[in-house]
Amino acid sequence: MKEEKHMEDSMTEQVHLLFPTHLNGAGRLFGGQLLEWIDEVSGVVARRHSESNIITAAIDNLQFKQGAYAGDTVVLVGRITHVGNSSMEVRVDTYVESLDGMRRPINRAYIVMVALDEEERPKRVPRLIVETPGQQAEWEGAEKRQRLRKRRRLEGF
Question: Looking at domain 4-155, which of 1.10.10.10, 3.10.129.10, 3.40.640.10, 1.25.40.10 is its CATH number?
Answer without folding.
Answer: 3.10.129.10
